[in-house]
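User: I'm preparing a small set of examples for a lab meeting where we compare how different chains pack in three dimensions. I only have the primary sequence for this one, and I'd like the structure in token form so I can line it up with the others. Please keep the answer compact; I'll paste it straight into my notes.
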Amino acid sequence: MLARVFEEAGLPTTSIVLIKEHAERVKPPRALFVPFPFGFALGKPDDPPFQHRVLAAALDLFGAGAAPVLAEFPEDAGAPARMLQAKAAQAEAVNSDGDAAGEITALRGYYERWLGDHDGRTAVGLSGVPQRRFRGLVRFLESYADGEDAPYDDRPAGIELPRFLRIASDDLKAFYMEARMCQRPDDRNNDLQRWFWSETATGRLLARVAERLVADGEERSAQGIAR
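Assistant: Understood. Below is the structure token output for the 227-residue chain.
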């Protein structure tokens, strides 16, 4: 939407998109689809050479033909992290037990070490819920997944429930990924995504949240959560 405004003012634009289907509907003037997880538009953190290749591919679209242009970052270009659908990973799930709130407590130290090592930079924060209150957030998500409509005081005013569930899920995924990258810095490719969706209680919880969103007619929000 903003890209169109800039273009109308004579300013060419290019963008990086994580959901190809959305770009196909919106048709931005120039867009590069990247097959990476949410929060990682340039690929895995701390890999500047790869990130520069992604940026260069997006900037190269200025030399493409008439807009709209939707290009794809090549999946065989050594991407450090690729999108993995929840269902694909959960087919490999090692167990069905576990407590999401307990996981968050166990991972908090790694996450906070990640913050210290990266000058406080993090992909966590979209929902406005402090990470120290994530235990309460997962309890709310558990209630929602179980078909209940429990109140949640930390939900910002003016944000509809499907939107909040989406951005809260993004925060939880970012929290887990950054904690895991601190804990296991050598993980590559789909290791992080497969771990989250197949080995964590929160991964299974978010898949259940997505299932209820689908049942409630909110397929678009569900699609954003479970991938």
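A couple of notes for your slides: Residues 2-72 form one domain. The chain is about 50% helix and 5% strand.

User: Perfect, thanks.
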